[in-house]
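step: validate -> pass
step: tokenize input -> pass
step: predict -> running
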Amino acid sequence: MTTARFLVVLDADSTLIRNEVIELLADEAGRRAEVQAATEAAMRGEVDFATSLRSRVAALEGVPVSAFDRVRARIEPTPGVRELTAAVHDRGGVVGVVSGGFHEILDDVAPALGVDRWRANRLSTADGFLSGRVDGDIVDGAAKAFSLQQWAEELRVAPHATIAIGDGANDLQMMAVAGLGLAFNAKPAVREAASLVIGPQDLSEVVALLP
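step: predict -> pass
step: emit ->
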């Protein structure tokens, strides 16, 4: 069984990367403004995340699967992310990402940025186009917290040796169960609930906090 000294789990959109992937996909449907407003409301905790995600994904119906390549090309890693993942590995830790975004993008982005394991939503397709539905259970706040705890157990990492980093309301449960919850590029409610607020927008700031 793989073990680790500690575990760092990040959100993806606006944390691991600077983008909100669903907004880039919405560009392909000509519906970015509508989806962006709904994403902001969900990240502030004003609406239920799963309900919001379903409505936002519905706006993507008809986007061709070929759009994934264009979206991947637009992804911008957050400054300092490679320094952080390298430092975690140097100290015997493991990096995880759990995201309300999508495997179709994260499966390419995560390993390139030094992430060891990741979990996200999947988009349903039909005949080469997005169907406007999520395939399977939605990765929401509860699922993020569960993933952190499950990975920690698999890696034999004590709860106090876990760090969660996020920006939105759907990260709060994950941050609450972690030994250290860090607000990064975060909404007000997340900053208030966090153990620490990290800034400026550079993930290498977290290196000094690693065990």
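step: describe -> The domain at 6-209 is CATH 3.40.50.1000 (Rossmann fold).
step: cleanup -> pass
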